[in-house]
Amino acid sequence: MAFRRGRQTMKKKFLTTILLSMLTALYATEDKQLLMVYEKGEGFIWINFYNKEIKSKYLCEGYHPQISPNGDKVAFTCDSPKDYPSMGRKIGIVDIKTGEIKILTSIPGNNNYGPTWSPDGRQIAFNHWNNNRWHIGIATSQDSDFYILTKEIKAHRTIFRSPVWAPDGKHIYFHDMEYLYKINLNGEVTTGQKITDILNSKYSISGATKFLPSKDERYLLIDPPDVSGKGMEGLTEQLTVIVLYDTKSGNLRHISPDNLYAQNPRWMNEREIIFEGVTEEETRINGDNAPLNIYKISIDTKELKLLLKNGKSPTVPYSGGVVK
After folding, report:
1. The whole model's pTM is what?
2. 289 φψ region: left (φ > 0), alpha (ψ -120 to 50), beta (else)
3. Fewest Cβ atoms nearer than 10 Å: which of 42, 228, 294, 318?
4. Of the CATH numbers 3.30.2270.10, 3.40.980.10, 2.120.10.30, 3.40.50.300, which one belongs to the domain with range 5-315?
5. pLDDT in tens, 214-273
6. Cα(164)–Cα(174) distance, rounded to whole angstroms?
């Protein structure tokens, strides 16, 4: 299936092409070129520089790319490379300029995925399996230290997933499919909220659902499954949508268009987001095999723009909801 997140996350030996693009035209409020990381197809990791012409550079194999805050490195999930078939899923970092790859050997186990950089670029959070449950792991980008952030948390469920850094770099958001947590780097939960108090009965939750705070943390960007029964023609799974939760007022707004399967959003700036999605017209023709595209949308006007066909997992340098 082209866009089933569970299979994309757990499937072994899944390789993707990742393109890094300098797309000035995407950011009307900015006067300089910015980097965007995204996946395209299956195979290899590439760098594409977009200006007056396209230049490509091969980097490595991998998936779940995340560009570092200053744009010089990409963290990714390395899944059983040919030279190390028994290695399992590890977290790797590739230097964009040199192409040098570093596997973070300080991280134990063979089931780690979904890296995300701290705002200062010094640490990486990720999903970590420690033989009895899913946890949130933290490692330094220099590969000098590792610890399990959620080790001391008592919970009924055996899954802690989808870490997202708070803009202050001192806290991390994650969930256990029942509660949304905000935890400091000492492993102390500072806030916890039932997800059903955030999402109404129209929406559900999955392990891949993320809660992404805005720069001031007033808003949470969320991509939950829509279980209202609407669905999309040609799509056999639940429709995933993008909603915006106002932590101050408690208001929940549906952001993505009704005829669009939408997931994996990222803040582009304070008023716009990028995400991957597929239209009902495309699923009507290709069903579950319809390729994903990359879009941007205004959270105010809901104006939608197609940025790239046949692309997914878009990311921009992290700055807490604002690209500088």
Report:
1. 0.85
2. alpha
3. 42
4. 2.120.10.30
5. 999 999 999 999 999 878 999 998 999 999 999 999 999 999 998 999 999 999 888 999
6. 6
